[in-house]
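Page header: ASSEMBLY MODEL / two components / 656 residues total.
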Amino acid sequence: MANVTLRNVRKTYPGGFEAIKGVDVDVGDGQFCVLVGPSGCGKSTLLRMVAGLETVSGGEIDIGGRVVNQVEPADRDIAMVFQNYALYPHMSVYNNMAYGLRNRGMAEAEIKTRVEEAARVLELAPMLERKPRQLSGGQRQRVAMGRAIVRQPKVFLFDEPLSNLDAKLRIAMRVEIRKLQRRLNTTSIYVTHDQLEAMTLADILVVMNGGQVEQVGNPLAIYEKPATTFVASFIGAPPMNLMSTRPDEIKTQLGADGRAAEAGILGIRPEDFVITDQTPAGGVALALTVEAIERVGAETFVYGSRRQDEQPVAATPGELPPGEVIVRIPGAEAPAIGQKIRIAAVREKLHLFSGDGRKRIEA
Amino acid sequence: MQKQAIFQSRLLPFALVAPQLAIVLIFFYWPALQAAIQSFLLQDAFGLSTSFVWFDNYQELFNEPAYFEAIVRTFFFSFAIAVSSLSLALLLAVMADKPLRGGALYRTLLIWPYAVAPPVVGVLWIFMLHPSLGVISRYLRAAGIDWNPLLDGNQAATLVILAAAWKQVSYNFLFFLAGLQAIPKSVMEAAAIDGARPMRRFWTVTFPLLSPTIFFLLVINIVYAFFDTFGIIDTMTRGGPGKATETLVYKVYSDGLLGGNLGSSAAQSVILMVIVIVLTGIQFRFVERKVTY
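Prediction written out in full:
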């Protein structure tokens, strides 16, 4: 039981490369915090700093009211689940889980109780005597989880624990991890590049980019009010449509009054479009030529292109080519390819950003 | 999957392996056969007549206490050389495995001694530890140690073991370093988080994970100590003083070439050959099965 607080945490490598450029995050007791971002954004480095596997160049890391910058990993009372599981290949499943307890001088009887309890929860009981190489990927993952929970640490750290599993197992394990965390009520920090995993697991979501925090908050709040165009295009799949407000067509529809005039970039989520010939008051309507259709059963994605006078918006990961728009409509009914359609979104569903995409503008 | 190569002509494959076969036949099978034949023959003192004596040479060998002493000595030498060079190499490899400034240079320097020929190693150590020439000998005597490996058998044995182990350190180091680098970094990190201090981490994680490498090197080192130490012994002690550093291989040489007892020497080399075959067999079985922890 502990909260984890990061105060202006920095990491600079000997070569001068700044991996973490001052991060402030506060994870409350028992909360599930997810660090999400594209590869190279520093999220794993940050987690490893919390674990004590990387030195801290600046700022403070506080676990349960104690600054741990100079504390050895073993003495931070944390447990970590690695991406490749990092099981001890020469030890049985039982010994893998017991190792951390033995190192701390726990009595064998108590170790046995704890390991068997963890094995029961994780459905590993029949394979306690097996070696890691005799297990499937999902089973290894559960052993790694077991190794963390038997320790009953203050904080769980997860470094992309599901990315080596196949898609189906990933979803199942995602739910398992969430249930387990709720039940144990242990503060957790989880690193992933998968925005869906991030959205579904997090109490607090930390979106990172280029060694900095782009936005911190409740996942749904972030989804509804992304602070920057980076967050807007990273959170949500398919990504938010971002377009320049400069073309006359959009400019006139947004209106020159108030704060909308300051905006340089307009964002609309694919599901907020409706195919309609009407223009809602204060909303935005666009003409589109349908270029591709993706049917996934319950919903259909329509890929269309607008007129090519569009200025490209600052490129961010997951973004569409300039002038292209994705529309998400329920059901399997879709317009034909090549057809010209009109789409519209209401005023409340518009996201406005400054021209550099770094600032959200509330209209 | 088609693994066999297909040749147009039936003769071409034979032609291609012929040079290799010729080398093996001329330099291994032919002398081995000669030795085997020789081991059943007995020459008179002047080398004028030769008679076929069946297993007399072997029988005589096994009745000779000196031969048993040589066997014990060889096993002791092998064990001492293998253990000392393996442990030193492992220590160096563990230290070199850490991210160091100039680590590449450090590693290259450690690998270098392997390129030195055994007789040169012998000469090198003589320069350091010869009773009258040696640089280190002077300090040893200054420290009150009566250092004279030319007269003291135990000191001579120590010297040979030292030189032979030193030469093998590089080779072992190379394998240990590769073995250490094959251990995933995250496993060591997991052990650190699991509360294992560096020494405990080494004995409970690193060492067991290196055990296949250790076993492989143990066999290699024993074979090395059995046979390849000839050059070192010949330059340093010539098997002396007395017979203090006479190993099985050196005895083959001294009985046969120096003593002129070709029959006994041949019988000894046949026995040695059997030992190599057994050792190689063990190693092959091990490599094929890829025994892991």
